[in-house]
Amino acid sequence: MMIDVVSWVKDGAWVLPKTLKQLENVLPSECVHRKIMVDDYSNDETREIGKDFNWEVYTNPHSGISSGANFALSKVDCPYFMSLEQDLFLSDDWWNKIPRLLDTPNVMVASGIRLPNKPVALRKLEDYIMTQYQKMGNSESLFLYGKTLDNTIYKTELLRKIGGFPKLAISPGVDNVLAIKVNEHGLKWIVDFDVKSSHLRNGLIEELKHYYWYGICNHELNKYLGEFGAKNSKILLYTLISPVAGIKIAFKKKCWQIIPTYTSIRLSIFLGILRSHLICT
């Protein structure tokens, strides 16, 4: 299989040398046709690093993931392509396991999962959550979980046929909206939960800021997700019971730090939603 690889980046100099080197280690060079990087007006050495690793570097015509992803798609000329986000350290077994999932005719997208590299409590927490979702099988209400754009391979023409990547006014949720779009067209997105890449993070404080941002975007994102959107009443409930749920998870994973970590995440999301509501009103 010959593929193109695309990535949309912004101020990624802190992490790109590590992730791009790992990509070279995992993907056989003879199977990579083009490497296409779309830069979103970085203020660091992102563009130079991309060129040093022999990527074609372009400027995002607008801003955000939707614009960057669709511009990258316009440059792809292989039947298959892979998307890699700048902070994704690809699993060593990705190439041997994920592309073959596209062999089924109605499978359009395939990916592994990603877990944060640090802090340890956050990685153990997300690993527990992923395991629980995996046990639940193919429930329609859960089919969005684990679907991301950061270690993902696509059938190019099928993605173009359904209109490309979703065109959202916000960056969070492009992956979830694409999953819904794929499903609506009678196609499938397969996630192999056993292929675990690492999401390179800067620590818990940065993660909480990220979850807070997702909370702020929740109202807008729900416009695109419809029935699959996270309802505020459920989020409030999860926030209230998070200390108890955290204790349960901490006991199972033998890591007490999960208790404040999980509670802080839930609170950050809720505070983001609350701020968004106050701004809108």
Q: And the CATH topology of the largest domain? A: Spore Coat Polysaccharide Biosynthesis Protein SpsA, Chain A
What is the fourth-level CATH superfamily of the largest domain? Spore Coat Polysaccharide Biosynthesis Protein SpsA, Chain A
Task: Supply Rg.
Answer: 19 Å
Strand order of the largest sheet: 3-2-1-4-7-6-8-5
Helical content class: 40-55%
CATH class of the largest domain: Alpha Beta
Oligomer: single chain
- The helix/strand order is EHEHEHEEHEHEHHEHHH
Summarize this entry quickly.
This protein is α/β, with parallel strands linked by helices and 281 residues long. It is 47% helix and 19% strand.
Explained architecture:
With 281 residues, the chain is of the alpha/beta class. It has 2 domains: 3-199, Spore Coat Polysaccharide Biosynthesis Protein SpsA, Chain A (Alpha-Beta Complex); 204-280, no CATH class. The chain is built from 10 helices and 8 strands. The chain has helices spanning 16-26, 46-52, 65-75, 94-97, 120-135, 156-161, 174-184, 204-225, 232-253, 258-280, and strands spanning 3-9, 32-39, 56-59, 80-84, 88-89, 107-116, 151-155, 188-199. Strands 3-2-1-4-7-6-8-5 form an 8-stranded mixed beta sheet, sandwiched between helices. Helix 1 (16-26) links the parallel strand 1 and strand 2 (32-39). The longest helix has 23 residues, at 258-280.
